Amino acid sequence: MEYPVERIRGQFPALASGAVFFDGPGGTQVPQAVIDAVSAYYREANANEHGLFATSRRSDEIVAEGRAAMADLLNARDGDGIVFGANMTTLTLHLARIIGRELRAGDEIVVTRLDHDANIAPWLHLREQGAVIRWLEFDPADCSLKLEDLGRAITERTRLLAVGGASNAFGTVNDLPRILAAARAAGALTFVDAVHYAPHRMIDVQLLNCDFLACSPYKFYGPHSGVLYGRREVLERLNPFKVRPAADRAPDRFETGTKNHEAIAGVAAAVDFLAALGQDPGTGWESYPAGRRRRLKQALAAVRDHESSLFARLLAGLKEIPGVRIYGITDPGRIRERTPTACFTLAGMTPAEVAQRLGEEGIHVWDGDYYAWEAMRFLGLGDRGGAVRAGLSLYSSAGEVDRFLSALQRMR
Ligand SMILES: Cc1ncc(COP(=O)(O)O)c(C=O)c1O
Fold first, then answer.
1. Residue 297 Cα, ligand 1 centroid: separation in angstroms?
2. Which CATH code is given to the segment(s) 34-272?
3. pTM of the model
């Protein structure tokens, strides 16, 4: 069954501008269904929670629907494991402070050099509590974690391991089952930053058996917001910072103040949008079997195929342009081990100049370090303007890849 890219593109009003949105790793465009859900919230349900009147009751339902949708996307047991927040960074800083309350001097935390700083800095702050940080390094040749060092990084004093599902800079997909199993065997808590992973791969928190997993709906076609999954027992055990009148049950006890209800309405709509792409094998894109989780699996498998084949085209084209240096996995045989996010420099031009020139042609890409601050410094790119990042999304097309490549060719 052919991937219906044109029909999918038709659902995204922003694409009508003709711009090429290769800035997806920084945030994706939203389909009309998400825009409608957010605006319907304001028209029909705008109120605070837990009141005894219609709009408040509807707000409560919308939050419950948002939790249920995210539970399906992540395969959480139920919505009680889903915490909503402003964004992943805020949720992670909050959680780290809470976990810090349990730590003793000399307790160890493992972080990786490959991660976004939102999954490093919150843990580094715990050095103020006496925590010792251990680093898992990556191989600059293909920007993949040095898993052979895992056994040395994790010790009997490890209390928490924080790792990304995929690198937002280089697209490397980490071997989460192996990494998380090693941490669990040492009795450590596990935290997964799935912000860059979630738009490209199916997540199963029960299979991963992680304690926490954070993601950001605005990277998977939803509104600006953050989601934290937490294992129920751990959410109940921890002692969160909270105001006294707020509910003391999980997940509410981790949500500080009034939630962004309109964004949560949009989060549920984004999950439903993805699920609706799910295909019943043999019957085509229009029909799918009941069960949102099953449809999501089918949808994300199709998205992964589409993005991988487009990325093969992008990578092959980039390699042909003289002066282009690509960071990350470049072996065409390993394309399915990575997300469709290319990080590169072009000789003779700064990353900002390249992004500026592409931007003038309506091609949106990022330049800089994208907060993969440690990794960019490790590669020596930190004080050289970082690199250019072009990321594909489920609405990217072959024509857009070709337009991007020919714009770069012309720059040479
Ligand atoms: C891998 C990764 N982790 C964390 C973040 C931070 O997410 P948020 O903007 O929701 O705080 C980002 C944002 O770019 C990211 O790409």
1. 23
2. 3.40.640.10
3. 0.97
